[in-house]
Design goal:
The chain is α/β, with parallel strands linked by helices. The protein contains six helices and five strands, in the order βββαβααβααα. The chain has a single domain, classed as 2-Layer Sandwich (Nucleotidyltransferase, domain 5). One of its GO terms (biological process) is DNA integration.
């Protein structure tokens, strides 16, 4: 996989003419697995540039349902992630920011065809998707920054190991010191 060198991206810009959906989770108590999923994109630095990392997380269990790494911001890697995630389960509500990958008809249409309610953060409201933001902090400070990956294959292998650790070994205080996989369900597949 090749990678490119560009300035720090603006990852949450909505696509022109794309429908923006309302935020459906204000005041909602998340009480069960597959009630709410979220997805987001972050960038991961490498010595000569960066890669884009997308992940889907179950809000109740903090389980990383699927993830993808890409050297471009086109929507294809997010669609692949969505297909993998929907192959593992189906949330009642799927929340994202208003980024072009998530406002695109391919993304929202796929969710609607699966019977999933589409929810989007308000403009400039990163706390509407705080669980994914916390995941990014964990990924970067517990893995990426410590290991200083030099090449894409190293990064990909490292992230695969980290998400396996995160889902099946990393205990969360907010989950009564259980792992996301324990809360998500017995035999939950690791991302």
């Amino acid at each position: 996989m090749a990678w490119a060198i560009y300035p720090k991206p603006k990852l949450s810009l909505a696509g022109r003419g794309h429908k923006v959906y309302p935020y459906l989770l204000r005041g909602v108590a998340v009480e069960r697995v597959n009630q709410v999923w979220s997805a987001d994109i972050t960038y991961v630095p490498l010595p000569g540039g960066f890669m884009y990392l997308a992940a889907t997380i179950d809000w109740f269990s903090r389980y990383v349902v699927a993830w993808r790494l890409s050297n471009t911001l086109d929507g294809a890697f997010c669609q692949e992630m969505l297909e993998e995630a929907l192959g593992r389960g189906r949330p009642e509500v799927f929340n994202t920011d208003q980024g072009v990958q998530f406002t695109a008809g391919a993304w929202t249409g796929r969710l609607e065809r699966a019977g999933v309610a589409v929810s989007m953060d308000g403009r400039g409201r990163c706390l509407d998707n705080v669980l994914v933001e916390r995941l990014w902090r964990s990924v970067k400070y517990e893995d990426v920054y410590l290991k200083g990956y030099e090449r894409v294959p190293e990064l990909e292998g490292g992230l695969r190991a980290y998400f396996g650790f995160y889902n099946t070994e990393r205990r969360h205080q907010s989950l009564d010191y259980r792992t996301p996989a324990e809360v998500y369900g017995v035999g939950a597949k690791t991302a």
